Target: NitT/TauT family transport system ATP-binding protein
Amino acid sequence: MDGTSTEPFSRAAGSTQAPLLSVKGVTLEYAAPGRIVRATQNVSFDVWEADRFILLGASGCGKSTLLKAVGGFLAPAEGQILLDGRPVTGPGSDRVVVFQEFDQLPPWKTIRENVAFPVRVSGRLGRKEALERADYYLEKVGLSRFAGAYPNALSGGMKQRVAIARALAMEPRVLLMDEPFAALDALTRRKMQEELLALWEEVRFTLLFVTHSIEEALVVGNRIALLSPHPGRMRAEINSHEWDLQSGGSPEFQSAATRIHRLLFDEAPIATEIDHA
Ligand SMILES: Nc1ncnc2c1ncn2[C@@H]1O[C@H](COP(=O)(O)OP(=O)(O)OP(=O)(O)O)[C@@H](O)[C@H]1O
Model:
């Protein structure tokens, strides 16, 4: 036993509630010149309220494309994506994406205005209330002191904290994160993982998080979907709620990571159902 449970997650098991997000048999394709590129094939998973659900797989297996489809930027060639039981038909403020690149903040706006801006243009709140909400989430990510500063005064990690505050200020149904820490140095990355978990403890948002790092998946997630190499198909689904940043070097953690590596890359037949072996 390596400590990685593959039992159905308790909140989902036996629950009569519908999942917040359902990805059902989703195949995603791009039309490239003269050919169709199939990015994912028949991918299914459910995300429940307050899950930290990870899409894990090798480069090119379609993780970002899946996130794009959940974001409503790409329609499935086959299958369906449901949010709160309703089909996703386009982008919406109930889903907000945080990307890897952290230079996305308009440099002429202060940090506070940057965070308040999407809330204000979405028409949810007036200027004053939007700025108050910005202050609330800047405090949550530890950046109150920089509210009046401009983005160029901030480090990469700080800019990513602003991007997270800006996304959370929209109070989305699901927060989508596409390798949000991959461009940061190792120490900052670890710190950001720690802060994201602390923030989740406080706010309990629902997270769909893309990574190709097995360690990051185990630490950040409570459930992990393992995708096969291109085109991405579900290899297995793993429960990982018992791991945190302190588990890092332990033999159990290492053996869980090894097992996931095997599940991801071994030439075993692709699971057609969730692997509870
Ligand atoms: N706009 C596009 N047009 C054509 N093919 C694309 C496009 N975007 C992605 N692809 C292809 O779709 C497949 C999945 O790409 P995707 O970026 O979703 O993978 P990924 O798992 O997120 O990879 P990475 O970890 O490297 O970001 C790849 O083969 C990629 O080349």
